[in-house]
Write the structure tokens for this entry.
Amino acid sequence: MLGEGILKGLAETARNFLGSYVSKDRLTTVQFPEERLPHIEAARSFPFLVYDGEDWQQGMRCVSCLICEKECPPKCIFIEKSKDKKPDATGKPQFYPVVFNIDVSVCMSCQICVEVCPFDAIKMDVEFELSTNDRFGGLLWDKERLAKSNAYYGKIHPTEAAAVDAQLAEERAKLEAKAKLAAEAKTATVATPPAQPLRETSETTEGSGA
Amino acid sequence: MPATVDQIFVICKHWLLGFAPAGVQPIFSALLSVVPILVVFPLLFAITTVLERKGLGRIQNRYGPNRVGPCGFFQPIADGIKSLTKEDVVPATADRVAHFLAPLLLVAAAFLAYAVLPIGRNMVVANLNAGVLFFFAVGSMVELAVFMAGWASRSKYSLLGAMRAIAQMISYEVPLVLASVVVIMAAGSLSTVAIVNAQVGYTGIWPHWFVFTPWGFAGFVLFMIAATAESNRSPFDLPEGESEIIAGYYIEYSGFKFALFFLGEYLGMFATSGMAITLFLGGWAAPFSFLTWIPSYVWFFAKLLTLIAGFIWIRGTLPRLRMDQLMSFAWKFMLPMTLLNIFAAGVWHFMPAGYARWLACIALVVAPFLLLGRGLQQEKKSGIRSYRFAE
């Protein structure tokens, strides 16, 4: 009969209407600023720079290799490489970024910088309440704004951070073992030529124009 | 005492009128009648918007607005401030004069309709002897405003929306008027006051409303369907179908003009609801004889709010129709139903009172409903689309 379906629909909406006053489970709304859902581990918003230890300037993992700057599809990263070297968290002298800027109004959260970084220095944040009333300066984040501790990284992405930490620890252990071996070899026989350097610093070659 | 409370506004008006010198009394009297309507119904509009949003929210298992003021009831104030401070954009190629006048005309037309609505006992702005006719004549001015808006904006979406609106409003104006003809036949008058007076009596505790007759009930349902279409509300909101033509004829309006369109639309809805109350639901009359001590205007607004709640409920339930469904519903169902309903009202008038009259009239209303409904539903059956050349 004509109108039967309409009556059924009206009954359904009436049930929703009254039910929403009776049972709280029906209401899926989260009253945002007061209530919050637990954040999702796989979430990502914008990149940040990871540092080890307490001091963000000393512990920054970034060695200013410029790979992320080159890979960034919307070109939102700007890095100025240092002329000198400073010891990093492990005490090894490294280049460091004098300027490291990310324009988050340009960033498209693609995570490519994270994937290409060989030093696990840049990771994705989950912070999303980033409104500012300064649309130029407020959205151009500098090194200090970007720097966040490894502990923070471990807190927002526990699984991922554990894997990264394990890998880094393994690499560090390997390096230490190698260094130890080399040192032992050095002290054992002075006649033999010195062992290969641990990490070949590839010579910066001018791109052959031809 | 109840009589004084019932007539309090009329008494107040006469008291205030006493202060005016004789020369300006007609104008002053008109002002005293018009100004309350200009205040009360926009206020009702403000309340309705927030109630509608909250109601729709609950229907969709959400909270609805609940941030501004207690329980979100100051939301309309925030909305008003927003629309007042917004930039008023007029398209460069628009017809500036018509573009400016369209929202004003819409609101003016919507307000004019209230002139003949009896809001309470002795509370009507103008007791015209052709009140119902005046109401529908003014109601069709809305179409002019809508088309002005669509045409003057010089935008494709606007024009499409306006064309849809015109097609829809003209199609549904026919059943709207024909559905109200039964009441005019029964009351023997076009005056809204006379129509209400014809429904004021009681049998035992039961009122003499026209909706409690077979033809009156059918007429009421048909009138409300046509009124929904007239006021461009869901499921007949094709003219402003947001998913298709964004906002239809008022897409090129911003700021306060947009708010005026909204106001006009809701005022139109209240006016047609008020007309439905006047014609079928006994106007300001109480639903039971023992409730007559409650003032008449309270009953009018109670009925009005009930009908508005019905509109919101329907809006929260039904999806938008397609243009061909809309048209076939108007011409193949609504029009024959209203015509047969007029016949049923005639039969009711000429048959002697008794069970035979009830049975005959119910049969005259239900049989065409079932047959026409079957016809509509058969048409709906559509098979899987086959492509002749694609295999």
Observations:
- Helices of chain A lie at 4-22, 56-59, 67-71, 112-116, 143-146, 150-156, 158-188.
- Chain A touches chain B through 19 residues (CB under 8 Å).
- The beta strands of chain A are 47-51, 77-81, 86-87, 93-94, 97-103, 122-124, 140-141, 147-149.
